[in-house]
Amino acid sequence: MRMVDIIAKKRDGEPLTKEEIDFVVEGYTKDDIPDYQVSSLMMAIFFNDMNDAERADLTMAMVASGDRIDLSEIDGVKVDKHSTGGVGDTTTLVLAPLVAALGVPVAKMSGRGLGHTGGTIDKLEAVEGFHVEITEREFIDIVNRDKVAVIGQSGNLTPADKKLYALRDVTATVNSIPLIASSIMSKKIAAGADAIVLDVKVGDGAFMKTEEDAAELAKAMVTIGNDVGRRTMAIISSMEEPLGRAIGNALEVQEAIETLKGEGPEDLTELSLELGSQMAVLGGAAETLEEAREKLQGVIDDGSALEKFKVFLRNQGGDASIVDDVSRLPQAEFKFEVESKTSGYVEEIGSEAMGIASSMLGAGRQTKDDEIDLAVGLMLNKKVGDRVEAGESLVTIHSNTEDVEAVKTKVLENYKIGGDEKDIPLIRKMITE
Ligand code: URA
Ligand code: CA
């Protein structure tokens, strides 16, 4: 087989065979095929797309390029959730105990944050003692006993995706539906998921700027999942503003606790219930999404979801007393209010900008080795659609330095206040098959 013939075939709009796709992915992973040939193929795919069979083959070729996590010793259907990248997205912290409280195993491999979105592990580490450095044996035993555990990324998962993603990044071929969809799905499958729930974000801060594009990406991933034997469902949700009110590690833990008590922000609660319902159906805890939602509401109301969160923290060394006394979480030394200059309605809150503002305080990292400050971040006092008067606080800054002028400016520049009482629907679409 010759790489040049494969490039020519895709250039001419013909579908590639499984053997050809395996040849490319294996050869590139082993450095047998040079960057320039693979980048040429990526561009041909960008223009000529891939059919469903090619997408499934590419996904599984990337899964086969590295290690795979074996969760077969865990009883039940292992459902994983993936979000395409949200700011202040506290849903994983809520979903893990919430769904586990229904008996669905949540065996989550998670990462740390980079750039303007926070990582689940960083957030959990705001709880004193909590750690994800557990052995695979402990991980499996905990999930079998208590249904929920989080482990740090380990092993050499999907090296082909890492190389391809880096190449696409510098060859203007990231924004291709078949390439994004196979990239995301390969990582979830390599991490051991039997079933997958996807939260595809749409809007300013997201990869997909329009609902149409987001729907196409979601549908592509759902089709891949189902074609390779992993039942997959998706939600398309708005990123026209950050999710919930808290952005920052300890602040988001507190927000998750409130949500598990049934006292959380409306949007975070809604998204958690929707995603949780899909997870519960795929995990076999309910027949329909409606039944799942009722059961989830039940474990919030009777306190068992909150109790599950305590067990989860305790199992991994965390101080579970923070759940009943959130003042034991890391606290920032200073609080500053960002006051609105004008009166009107909040029409838009730049999600990415709020993520960056929170990072500027030290809540996120710019490079992989940065230390983060678990206590700092932003609390949004006003959300899209809220009425605000001049002088009222839009955001409370939690900081460990007194110099927050640049952060204040960033927040003010990205709160759009106008005359329209806008209502941005959070959940745009559900794709269940
Ligand atoms: N996120 C991924 O993991 N892969 C892509 O290709 C794009 C976004
Ligand atoms: Ca949040």
UniProtKB/TrEMBL annotation:
Which UniProt key words apply to this protein?
Glycosyltransferase, Metal-binding, Potassium, Transferase
What family, per the record?
Belongs to the thymidine/pyrimidine-nucleoside phosphorylase family.
Which cofactor does the UniProt annotation name?
Answer: K(+)
UniProt-listed Enzyme Commission number(s): 2.4.2.2
Does the record bear Ribosomal protein in its keywords? no
What function is annotated for this protein? Catalyzes phosphorolysis of the pyrimidine nucleosides uridine, thymidine and 2'-deoxyuridine with the formation of the corresponding pyrimidine base and ribose-1-phosphate.
Q: What is this protein called?
A: Pyrimidine-nucleoside phosphorylase
PROSITE patterns, per the entry? THYMID_PHOSPHORYLASE
> Where does this protein come from, organism-wise?
Salinicoccus kekensis
Q: Where is the Pyrimidine nucleoside phosphorylase C-terminal domain?
A: 345-418
Under the heading InterPro entries, the entry gives:
Glycosyl_Trfase_fam3, Glycosyl_Trfase_fam3_N_dom, Glycosyl_Trfase_fam3_N_dom_sf, Nuc_phospho_transferase, PYNP-like_C_sf, PYNP_C, Pyrmidine_PPas_bac/euk, Pyrmidine_PPase_CS
Record's superkingdom? Bacteria
